[in-house]
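Order emerges. One example.
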Amino acid sequence: MRARGLASSFAGAGAFALAVALLASCGAASDRAQTSRTTTTRAPVATTTRVEATTSAPATTVEPATTSPSTAAPTTPATAAHAVTAPPATTAPAPPPAPAPLLVTRVAGIGGAQQVITVAAAGYGTSIATVTAFEHDTNGWHTAFGPWTSYIGRNGVAPVGAKREGDGRTPSGVFGIDFMFGVDPDPGVHFAYRHITGTNIVWDDDPGSANYNEWIDTNVASAGARPEPMDNTPSYDYGAVIAYNDARTPGLGSAIFLHVSHGSSTAGCVSLPTSELLDLLRWLDPARSPRIAIGTTASLTA
C-alpha cells in the first residue's frame, strides 16, 4: 500500500510536472504564434508599400497617353484663333488715300481736246521723259496708254519759247498733230499718211530757205542747205509731225516729230519703241482734236 501510495504520489507529481511543462510549452508556442502573426501582418504592409511605388511609376508614365485629346487639343487653337481674329473694339480701319488727280486735268492750254499725250520730264537738262496718253469721254478723263519711258532731245526740254534751231532741245508747250508718215506703209491710222518713197524725201531745216520747216520732195522742190533725210530707219519707220513752229519762223526750230526710238536721245524729237508708238498713232483721231503737251512736270502744271 505504501508502495502504491508513493507510486501514486510520484505519478501525481509527474502528471503535474508534465502539465506545467505542457503549459510552458504552449505559452512559448503561443508567443511564437503571436510573433509569427505579428510578423505576417507587417509583411503585407511592406509589400503594399512596394506595390504602391510600383503602381505610381507606370501611372506617371502612361498618363499622357491616356489623356483625352478631344478635350485639351482643340481648346488652345480655338482660343488663339479668337484672340487673333477679334480686333479691339475701338480700332477702326483707316480710310484709303484719295487718288492723285490725273496729270491731264492739271495741264493748261489743251482747250477742247478729247485726246491728250503728255511728255513730262523730271526737270530741264534730262533726255528722258514720261509719255502718257489720256482720253476724255462721258465719264471724264482716264488713262488710255502709258506711262511709258521715252527719249527726248539730248539737251532736254527748252523752256516755253526758248527752243532754237540746232540746240538739241525739245520745245515745251501744247501742240497739235499735222500729219503722219513712214518708210513703212500706212499701219492703219486716222490721220493723213505720207509714205517715204526714197532719198528724195527730206525735211527742210535751213532757216534761210523759203521752204523752212516743211516736207520736201527734192524731185519737185528745193530744200535749202543740208536738209534732213527722211529715208531714215528705224527712226522714221513710223512717225507723226508735231505741229511746232507752224508759222515757220526762221531759227525757232524745225522737224519736231513723234517717231520710233533708236535707243538714245534725239535732236529734239520725242521717241518711243515701235509697239508703243503704233498704239498712239492708231489711237489718235483728228476728229477728237488731239494735243501733245511737252515740258517738265512742274511747267506743265504751273
Residues 32 and 98 are 106 Å apart (CA to CA). The first strand starts at residue 115 and ends at 121. Residues 1-73, 77-81 have pLDDT under 50 and may be disordered. Helices lie at 2-66, 69-72, 75-85, 274-283, 297-300.
